[in-house]
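Please annotate the following for my students:
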Amino acid sequence: MSIALPLSPEPTDATPSYLDYGGTLRPIFGGAIQKLTRLGDRFAIEVTLPPLEYADLGMLWIARLIRAQREGAILPWPQPGFSTGLPGNAVINGAGQAGSLLSLRGLAPGYTVKEGQFFSIVHGGRRYLHQSADTIAASGTGQLRLPLAPMMRINPADGEVVEVAKPMIEGILDGDTRSWKLDVALDVGLTFMITEMK
């Protein structure tokens, strides 16, 4: 089970990435370039934390990152300056969904999901991060058919939770080692990268 990283302090710097597992075919004799779209595109984020006092928050962050090295990490996905508002309690509306269109229910009536807004689907105990591909308002009954990117990498079950108010990235920490910088002020400097596993 993945380790929830502390919520405080927030990163001083974050670099989100979209990882495209498709391909581009470039013919050697000048033919048309083709884009291959495949399942498996996902997100990653590189995070730098502010200096942490070792005896205060530094030890906690180091301990969680060491555990997350083996078990995976969960961290809120940043959407700076954007308020998700009160989306309600979104869940998957119907089993067997696949592709780039997701049916939801349980949203607040009239809640608007904005193009570019992130959300995470919790499936089988793991989170999968997605982004809305259009601005769409929920119906009066809180239902919505939402275009998304990337394509779903899983087939979510009916009633599974969709985290709209606070989307999370869940994945592995890149690299084979965890290291931290100590300075003379007894502060700790931490930088790490989380990549979705699936």
Observations:
- Helices lie at 54-71.
- The mean pLDDT is 93.
- The chain has two domains: 3-24+36-78+170-196, 88-166.
